[in-house]
Amino acid sequence: MSERGPQDQPDEAMVDLLIKQVTDGLSPAEQRALDVLDSAVVSAHLRDFERAAAAIALAGSANASPLPPDLAQQVARQAEQHFGAVAGADKPIDLAAARSAPAARAPAAAPRSGAYGWLAAAACLVLAVAAWNRPPPQAPTAQVSPPPAAVPLPAVRPAPPTPAEERAALLAKADSLKVTFGATKDPAAHGVSGDVVWDPATQRGFMRLVGLAPNDPSMHQYQLWIFDGGRDKRYPVDGGVFDIPANATEVVLPIRAALPVLSPQAFAVTIEKPGGVVVSGRQHVVALGAAG
């Protein structure tokens, strides 16, 4: 509220009319009486009275929380210092009365100059009440990022069965054929033994060899032959070329038949040139087994 000089202060008649205008409203005659007064002074003070009236209504709200005693006393002192000269009040402002005053209008019995100061003090009061009851600013809510989605671990595939395990499973089948290997008179066949397990239904089989000498693949390789009862004996079915690693005492190897075997009659292992041959001369047969 800006400072005003003594010539700008309203007289008692103007105060009466301004109070009634912002509380009950003016009759036509009272409005005409106000219109003939100094319009500059009326305009200068009308807004203060309107704000004070609104302050009284807000101060009487049931939802407002009471001010702490020290804050109420501070508001009273500031109101008296700021508005004492304007109001011409000769007694302290009763803040409790201001808060409990009816919201519709100011007390009719209040002295004119005192009413002006009382309304002005009410404006200070409601500002303090509004500030006291204003909810504290909310701290910004921390944005919590969701935990990262669990990355599914790749499925652990079981290790493939070894040739020895597959041989054992094939050997457990009732319709599998087992043929025992025996050594021949070839010097390289000394101490050789083993067997063949063959499944006619799936055309799968494994051979187990014990005591066969390791070979140098660049010099020669071993080759398996399958004699089929439904084919010419001169042309046994190629069962695959293989090597014996160094320091190996027993090996289990899969059989890779080049053609379907209709009726296996015998199995033979020969020594051939690197890469094997299409037709064996059978000069070096190191293992031989016949079906029973």
Strand content: 15-25%
Within the largest sheet, what's the order of strands? 1-2-3-6
What is the mean predicted local confidence, pLDDT? Answer: 76
Unreliable runs: 85-115
Number of domains: 2
Helix content: 25-40%
Q: What's the total count of β strands?
A: 8
The main sheet comes to: 4 strands, antiparallel
Shape: rod-shaped
Structural class: alpha+beta
Distance separating the two termini: 124 Å
- Radius of gyration, in angstroms, nearest whole number: 58 Å
Q: How do the helices and strands follow one another from N- to C-terminus?
A: HHHHHHHEEEEEEEE
Give a topology summary.
Layout lengths: L11 H12 L4 H8 L3 H21 L9 H19 L7 H6 L11 H22 L29 H9 L5 E5 L11 E7 L4 E7 L10 E8 L8 E6 L7 E5 L9 E9 L12 E6 L2
Antiparallel strand pairs: 1-2, 2-3, 3-6, 4-5, 4-7, 7-8
Helix pairs in contact: 1-2, 1-3, 1-6, 3-6, 4-6
Kindly describe this structure.
With 292 residues, the protein is α+β, with helices and mostly antiparallel strands. It folds into two domains: 6-133, no CATH class; 163-290, Sandwich (Immunoglobulin-like), CATH 2.60.40. Helix content is 33%, strand content 18%. Strands 1-2-3-6 form a four-stranded antiparallel sheet, covered by helices on one side. A four-stranded antiparallel sheet has the order 5-4-7-8, with no helix packed on it. A hairpin with an 8-residue loop joins strand 4 (221-228) and strand 5. Helix 1 packs across helix 2, helix 1 crosses helix 6 (112-133) and helix 4 (69-87) packs antiparallel against helix 6 (112-133).
